[in-house]
Structures are given as C-alpha cells and as structure tokens.
Design brief:
Shape: elongated
Number of strands: 20
Radius of gyration: 23 Å
CATH class of the largest domain: Alpha Beta
Helix content: 25-40%
Number of domains: 2
Amino acid sequence: MSARLIVDLDALRANYLDFAARSGPARTAAAIKADCYGLGMDRLAPVLRDAGCVDFFCASLSEGIAARRVLGNEPAIYVLNGVCADETPRFAEYRLVPVLNSTAQIQCWRENGRGAPAALHVDTGINRLGLPFEAFAPDLLTGINLVLVMSHLACGSEPSHPLNRTQCARFAAIQSALPGIPASLANSAGVLLGADWLFDMTRPGIGLYGGAPLDENSPQLQPVARLDVPVLHVRSLASGQSVGYGATFTATHPMRTATIALGYADGLLRSAAPKGFARHEGTKLPFLGRISMDMTVLDITDCPHTLAPGDTVSLLGSDLDALAKAAGTLSYEILTRLGPRLQRVYKEGPTR
C-alpha cells in the first residue's frame, strides 16, 4: 500500500482563468519551473496551454527543453536563469528565450544570440538575480532583440510592505525608458496588489497550484493537489505509552492511533510534527511523535469513524498552507518536495 498524489486538472485550469480575469488587459503567463511546482509539467503545462496560456517561465535550460518537448512549437518559453556562451546553440535549437540578468549575459547574447529574442530582468529591490536598477541604461541593450522586460517582487505576499510600491515605481521608470517593450512585474501575489502592478504581462506561479499567494487574507483558490494515504495499522495506546523515535510524545490518557504510509522519504517534512494533521471525512487527525522515513502516526481518538488498515486519510487539498505553516515553511516547499514514491493520479473534478 502506498500514498497517492491526486492532481486535479480542472482546478488548475480554474485557477489560471481566475488569474487571467484578475490580470485585466495584461497577458497571463505561467511559471512552470520545478516540474510545475512538483506536480508534473508533462501533464499540467498542456492544461495551461489549452486554457489560453502562451507564455511560460522555467528556471533552467534543462527545464526549458523539457517544456518545449511537452508544449510544442508555439508558446514562448523563457529561461529565468539566463544563458552562458556554451548554451546558446541549445537555446537556438529549442527556441528558448533567455532572461538576461547581467551585463555579462547581455554581452554573451549580443555576441552569440544571432538576433534571437531575449528578455531583460532588472532588479528593483529583491537583490537576487537581475541587472541592478542603478546600472540600467537603454544603451546597454544595443544589438539585443528585446521582447520583454521584467522584475520580481520581494514582498508581494505582504500587500502593505512599502517595498512593493518602491519596486513598482522603479519598474515603471524602466518601462518608460523602453517604449514599446512589454513589461512584467507581478507574480501570483503581485496580481492581487492592484492594477498598478499588472503592466503588460503577469506571471502567476504558486497560486496556479493552489497555494495562497498572500500571507494573510488570501483569496480562495481551487486546491489542486491532495495526498490520499493508506492506514497501515490501528492500535490503542495506554496512558504512559510513548510514540515513535525519541519518545517525544507520551499519552496522558487512553488513545487510539493510526499509522499511515507517509514519511519524509515521500516529502513530508519532519518539521510538520507535532503541529501537522491529516483528515478523514473532514475530521482533523493530529500528528503524534516524530515523522519517520516511511510512516507517520495520527491521533484518531476523536475520529467519529472507525478506521481500519486499508482505509485512507488525506493531506494537502485545502489544508496545503496550514500544513506548510505547521512545518514552518511555505506551500512552495511542501509541493516541490513531494517524492517520486508517490503514485501520481491526474483527474478531473474536485480534490476537496
């Protein structure tokens, strides 16, 4: 018995159309890096394409090649990490658009790109990749077939953070210096900040896959991923008995427990215990003790249904962000860590 990852393609499509509607006149792209955030690019990217998406963003050259093979010849595929000289033949072969992040990458593409399209990333405040805002000058782009200028928000998930407005103003100045070049600033969270952040193209990512874009008061999106996990063993626990490695949990009263077939080898973070939980028909079943490699123990004392080996409990779904919070992380990490042992099932209809 093994856990199954149920991926709802209808929900993915609905989330894309939701962001497209929120983007107003701006074109809505899709971030499909990290294998569509761990859920399977070969199955999810075509759904996004068929929903109307014509621009896709990957992290690396290898991801871009995989996306081209999945999506066919038509969509634009951008590679966020940029390009180096020995990669340019493959960019040409697969018609990938490098996102140029530095003067060195600009010069590399000028010398080796042979007039093929490129995008420019200007850093307006996140201080990761991107040409520094202070170093930007239109003359740097002489000889570059520029088809997009972009930046990335550092604090979009916190709408009131002052850096959002600062980055928006800086990016507007960049846009005005490059008339006629499409501009893109907003990720999932940025789409929710308002019309000033939309520009010509939005680039939702985590929101497409059911994660909350905002830290608080995020709009309800359709859950895309659910784990259905079999129960391996059910037992009674007497007061004074402990559970799991290190005996980190000791019962103070008689309890009933269920051991399920999911552990950190499947991508369930150890840090999700003890605050995490599964559900059975809506009832929360808290984690007990430590998460181990292949198993997790649940408290089923208050479950109104009698569970037995072979029954299933569920995780993620509409609880994705709650589980992430319990683990002290974000939904991004929860999804991208889902392991290869999970049986992946792609279906239409709700994941609950």
